[in-house]
Amino acid sequence: xxxxxxxxxxxxxxxxxxxxxxxxxxxxxxxxxxxxxxxxxxxxxxxxxxxxxxxxxxxxxxxxxxxxxxxxxxxxxxxxxxxxxxxxxxxxxxxxxxxxxxxxxxxxxxxxxxxxxxxxxxxxxxxxxxxxxxxxxxxxxxxxxxxxxxxxxxxxxxxxxxxxxxxxxxxxxxxxxxxxxxxxxxxxxxxxxxxxxxxxxxxxxxxxxxxxxxxxxxxxxxxxxxxxxxxxxxxxxxxxxxxxxxxxxxxxxxxxxxxxxxxxxxxxxxxxxxxxxxxxxxxxxxxxxxxxxxxxxxxxxxxxxxxxxxxxxxxxxxxxxxxxxxxxxxxxxxxxxxxxxxxxxxxxxxxxxxxxxxxxxxxxxxxxxxxxxxxxxxxxxxxxxxxxxxxxxxxxxxxxxxxxxxxxxxxxxxxxxxxxxxxxxxxxxxxxxxxxxxxxxxxxxxxxxxxxxxxxxxxxxxxxxxxxxxxxxxxxxxxxxxxxxxxxx
Length: 489
Fold this sequence. Notes:
alpha+beta; 5-stranded antiparallel beta sheet; 13 helices; 18 strands; 31% helix; 20% strand
């Protein structure tokens, strides 16, 4: 029997495709800006990686640049503040050895994050269509006029004035005819499935860390533009911190366990694809859990190939079983620890990038470039690509803004070439590979900007490209919503 064909009578001002970190920010921003907004998501949860496939609130770990200036706020800061007030987040923790790296710990409870997002959707008046997959667009010439959705109702056509692709992989923009860039199977960053453990004896673990501070690794010690003296000073601060800290939640992450890792590789009790370590997940009542984000690392998986994705899901779980057994056998404090949560799908680190009217580059990051059409800022390094080798998770070819400040994200990165009435947000926005804006705080910044821009375009019946020459109203509204567009160096 053929699928039932349904055309939804109502035309929405803005349709957001994908309810991950960029999608929820886009939908909230669009609705708050006066647009009749529909958010379509393929599963029943909102928040994407941040609530069910990735790290525990990692979006809140890079809100301050190395100078201590906050360069990401708006909806992302609003969410953190709200969850902190409710007891479901850690404050903006700034250990001394982290201050000059632009890396703070502000993690949130991922399950309460999902609840918070649903509350904010209702408050903003966003319409939701969950358990629905956007499979195509409708077009009139080069203008996108709506989307085609598959769900249990049948095949649905839903019309919208402005469509925002927040799928993470650029699926909708690419199907609409926008050009894209991607790497090959040998080069693509590895993907992972996170899991969480409880029942950890934190006192025993902290005793071990205090007496073995050199076994804990802080990857930011390798910032490329630091002098050897500066790196050594930061290293000594880290050793002091690890040897005295008694509260695991103040560490934020515990990575390295160098000798255990080496032994596991020698005995075959640890797989060869990643290092040993975990992040801290805050839970209700001041409780914390260990969240393993890097314990599986699966290379050679392209996100636009379902056969690859299927193999990757299986391989991630194989590696995670190895990690679970290893932690319980060797890591102090984990003898009686147990699995509480295995995320249901891979965290996809690298997918296609949709080419827009401007491509943010590695050189832009290196000089901290400013743009007149700025819609957000970041300080996160370019070239921070995960690779798989037999010893560690390597991040190679990194470059940071030379003055330890921030760089601008221009609006034109959100406007795809060759199509109209379409915006992109999230990790698929227009960059070169090194400047890839895949980190969760960056996806929420671009999502909020795309949402406001879409609302303005729907109101004025213009395509997003028409805003490129006059972004002043967009910038004014973003600032009123708390976004940071200036005031950093």
